[in-house]
Amino acid sequence: MKFVLPAAFLACLCAAALATAQSARQSPQQTANQRAPLTNPAPAQTLAPAIQPGGPPAATPPTEDEANPALPLPSSAAQNLYAKAKADLLQIRMLLKNGRSQSTVGSGFMVGTSNLVLTNYHVVSQMALDPDVYIGEYVDTDGKRGPVELLAVDVLHDLAVVRINREGTGFFNLPEKLAKLTQGQYLYSLGNPLDLGFAISEGSYNGVITRSFYDQLMFTGPINSGMSGGPSVTVSGDVAGVNVSKRRDGELVSFLVPVRYAQELLKKVALQTAPPKDFNPLIGQQLLAHQKAMVDRLLDAPLATKMMGPYLVPVRESEQVRCWGRSNVKAEASFTADTISCSMESAIFVSESQQTGHMAMTHQYVRSASLDKIRFSVLATTLFKVDNLGSNKDTRLTGPSCTEQFVVTRSVPLRAVTCVRAYRKFAGLYNFTLMTATTDDAKASLQSRIDVSGVSYENGMRTTRAFLDTLGRGSRQ
Amino acid sequence: MTASYFVETLARNGDVLHRHQVGSLPIRLGRGYDNDFIVDDSHCAARHAIIESDPDGRLVLRDLGTRNGVVHQGKRKSSLVMSGDTVVRLGHTMLRVRAADFPVPDEQLDRTMHAWEGGMPGLVGMFLIGVFSVLTVWLNDTQSFQLIRYLQALAYGIAAGLVWGGAWAFANRLFGRHARLGRHLFIFGCGFAAVTVFKLLSSVVAYSFSFEAITRYGSHVAILLVAGMLYFHLSTVKPNNARKFAVTCCIIALLGSGLTLISNEQRSGRLGDELYMSVLLPPTMRVAGDHQVGEFMDKVGAMKARLDAERTRKVNDGAVDDDDDA
């Protein structure tokens, strides 16, 4: 007998998949990635005088060219500076070894009269991580090119030192005794923004920022990508910092690496006899040092607690770790969800696709008066499900390995899940994720999560344990 | 010698398409109107073959020198002995000849429940589909009550049931003799109910006893249930092929499970459907006891060796997911 079997034999499972997705767990978009306009495009009216040459200027808005004579003269300090700095300013490019096409570009500057160039680690990261695939090249303001040799990196402060085949004129000096900067003081930032050409921009120094784990200087002036690694100097030519980043959600809020870290790195270079062959173990060591400092600072005192409903939840609020609260007070839902999320505002850049040395925690307290126990369970289940913990196809990290159990802390029973991923390139570094859900109330659930990335196994366990030990049930205040 | 013979033309699956009684031998076969049995096949000759009795009393078919000939079991024959089960092909026509005294096998026992046909099982099937679609929506409904969501689920569920049941009824009409739509609806309703109940029950058991493997590999049981449902559909179409259908459905279940495992491995690198059990139920439903934080941390510590072995394993560079690209 001939018989054709229907292929859609799983069709009846479809109806079971009608589960409604809950978006309550998604983290808030606190920093909108709006990019401010990089240039001020000339208005359309600029062309008007060209069409009507004899027209009275008052009738049309002044063009930029016409307006300039009316404005004060451009800062002569900037003019002087750029003229003097020109010879020691470089663009640093990462090239693919095959085909020599550029992959990333940044800036750099020659230190004193040496053949050493300071730049950012993130400008040369590809060369440091994959020397078989990428090589570096410099281009100076005259368009001359030459090879660069990587000597040292400081991943934590985002600095690197490279050597090139010529010497500096001595304009950029890093004096042993640093000049004291005062707030509001003019600084001039140099570099090659967006690979458009060398540029100087003026801004002001606005103090030391402690929000990032390592001190950075706040520079209120334009820094664009491509200027990374370039110097920011005082009017007298003393280097104040190295351009590193800017806030995309702000206007002219840029950051510099303080020059004292660059001096420390240069001292290390002076001591080393030959550049390391492989930077990966070195970067691994620096990340290990960072995680130790990070976890020690996180756990130096018992974690603070906050009340969420009847539960005590651990938080850590400091200069580096900011917490944000949010609630789903909407008429539509039949449950209430309050969320506190705390996270470190900075992370360590390792490569374009990998940031580490970070910590984040989230507590979500969900309860419902109108839902029955069964449906509340389904809701809690949906919220407890997280799918984005990664797979084992990743070249940077192993797949997650998880442990789960019913656990009782000092005063509350929990369902606890810990997932760990190991770094493939850096031995001894792991990402830890702990997820917990309270199991003592049929109509309320406290779901917490802590993520620490780039920590040693011991410190990951320590953090997990501290977090679990602090979670509890407290008396209502 | 009995004087009555039956020439039967057969479909490829063995079903009799046409049966013709012939009073006496010889029987002339061919396209021409002077034959005893007229074969309406343009690949047959006007006088194609003749069936006679040989000295031993057996029926013998003889080719009358045609272009296409007489084919038995793929070989062309000029003449061959026709037992009651010998099927020959003339052109595109398959036929056999049986005498009136051909012994037929005993009647098969009728296991079909003839009372459970038509409207009643159909309604029960629809009722099950409706109840379980509404239940699924109700369980996941965390918004304020809106009737339309339930009505929609009901409509989609019933429509899916009718399409599925209708397709099987069509097959049933084609290969069996009756459509038996009610039966097929009932089977689908039961299958859907079984899968839903299994999902709920397995979640309860997994949570209660902390048996995480159930939620990780439970989908294979669901696949088995679906294969079981297919078995009942097939047996309804052809009631007498139980063993063959059972084997077919087992193979389908194995294929389904295999595909699930392979796609899990491709997608996430692990065989289970999920990384950890996300089911949370009310405290009263829990049987398994609590562990101390220390025990939990010991288990976390025990994962280190596995991770360290895993990290040096080479991965295929092309398969990197760019999920957290900056």
Automatic annotation (TrEMBL), chain A:
Domain of life: Bacteria
Keywords from the named record: Signal
GO molecular function: serine-type endopeptidase activity
Signal peptide: 1-21
Pfam families attached to this UniProt entry: Trypsin_2
One BP annotation, GO: proteolysis
Compositionally biased region (Polar residues): 27-37
Name by which UniProt lists this protein: Trypsin
Region described as Disordered: spans on this chain: 27-74
This protein's record includes keyword rRNA processing: no
Keyword hit for Signal: yes
Residue ranges of the TM segments: none
From TrEMBL, chain B:
Keywords: Membrane, Transmembrane, Transmembrane helix
Occurrences of domain FHA (ranges): 27-77
Pfam families the UniProt entry points to: FHA (PF00498)
Segments crossing the lipid bilayer: 120-139, 151-171, 183-208, 214-233
InterPro entries named among the record's database cross-references: FHA_dom, SMAD_FHA_dom_sf
PROSITE patterns according to UniProt: FHA_DOMAIN (PS50006)
Protein name from the UniProt record: FHA domain-containing protein
